[in-house]
Amino acid sequence: MIGPAMIGTALGTPLQTLEDLTDRLRRVSLENAIAPELTEALKELTGLRLLDQLGDFISIKDRQGRYLFTNQSACRVVGIDDCSVLSGRTDFDFLPRASAEQVSDLERQVVETGSPIEKREERLAFNDGRMLWLSISKTALRNGAGDIVGIVTVARDITERKRQEQLRHGHARLLEMIARGQPLTAVLDALVLLVEAQLSDIRGAVMLLEEGGTHLTGGIAPSLPPAYVALIDGIEIGASRGSCGTAAWRREAVLVEDVQSNPLWEDFRELGTLFGFRSCWSTPIIGAEAHVLGTFALYSSSVRAPTAPELELMNMATDLAGIAIERAESERRIRHLAHHDPLTGLPNRTLFWSQFNRSLHEARRENRKVTVAYIDLDNFKSINDTLGHAAGDHVLKVLADRMARCIRASDLIVRLGGDEFAIVFSNPDGDRSGVLRRLDKLRGVIAEPVWAEGTSVEATCSMGVAFYPEDGELAEDLLASADHAMYESKELGRDRLTVCA
Q1: Which residue spans within 418-471 are E strands per DSSP?
Q2: Percentage helix, strand, coil for the chain under 3-state DSSP, each rounded to 5
Q3: Which of 15, 109, 349, 486 has its CA 20 to 30 A from that of 172?
Q4: CATH code, 298
Q5: Burial of 175 (0-12, 13-18, 19+ CB in 10 A)
Q6: Are strands 461-468 and 412-417 parallel, antiparallel or unpaired?
Q7: How many whole angstroms separate alpha carbon 272 and alpha carbon 260?
Q8: pTM of this prediction?
Q9: What residues have CB less than 8 Å from 63, skipping those under 6 apart?
Q10: Which residue range(s) make up the domain with 19?
Q11: Are 235 and 215 in contact (CB under 8 A)?
């Protein structure tokens, strides 16, 4: 994120511009001057308009929270085209009171303590009904005498990131529920609520195909009216049986944009009118043996087609629903999903620790060596920041696949989380130098370019290596030793391998 201290850099004069700004604000006396005078003073700093090119929301206020300067991104987030409208006014003029008070409390804290607030994550409501997560940094603006005369704010919209986090956590929680054998209704209920939490004006439902394969029953729809759920319970599948009945019959998605005009809803239009549904998109839940297990549907009160994110969520939901429904017959698949990273397909920490401990047990019994490498990608955050999280995920998957192809069947690789990985080499061939050569080769493979979002991306890595039993006899101690060596690689300049001292 572009922090307040970097505003001057964006203007091309890192220190002079900010000092000039502070001096001009002081000379017009922020405490007493009227808004137009402040605005005119700021206009003299025409370089500030360069900040309009930034996606971050940047603003400058006086001690009373009155706007003195805002870039275009900050204006747009509150629904204003002309930034001059903000001049001299406060958040209480543009935001719901609760959100304005949230912001005001943060600024009061900065003014009273003089200490900056760095990357505080806050969820704010806006007058048009939007709820956005913002990462907010606020820094006191001081005059030549060191007095606080205003506040510089730099904020970034992290709503999508938070949404993805919520989705990942919900996805993991659902997998845990499935793996622990939670009741099917509880799992499907949580699944529908997770999808609904990601979207606006959407209600979801799961229906199961009964054993005979002719009717849908047992609707799980926590947000739909119970009367509607009762009326559709037991609906027969067929060529023109609404969205869900038709999707189960066709074995493909049925996306009805207007239930009042689509012939598939001819027998159910009264239900749409009665309960306020205008569009319904349904997709069949198909099991591992290609059997239809049920349907997953989303209802909207608007006449429209589903968006790409909505389709993506539907696909995710149908996959999870299929797993949950088949859990009794697909224990192997459930165990795999519960013990592997969903993005890269590599083992996760749970499986890693059990296999690592087993490797050490065998090494003790057979007097073998074990080598542990801790791998952290260098500056990976910049890929997410510049190309987006989808590109970052793609790079992670490619690099994970490269690492997996570079190790032997007897070795163990794991994604520890984020951009961190570990590899355990059991009974490595030859002496330490042989293992280190393999790791150096792997480091070169990782650094090879990856094509993402139409551009070539290079991601180097820092490695730390520890040996059993010299650097520890327990799995936790060995991994900690390798982690420490990895941080030494970071401190020495990154893109290197360091052996535990």
Answers
A1: 420-426, 450-452, 455-457, 461-468
A2: 45, 25, 30
A3: 486
A4: 3.30.450.40
A5: buried
A6: unpaired
A7: 7
A8: 0.50
A9: 30, 31, 111, 148, 149, 150, 151
A10: 4-157
A11: yes
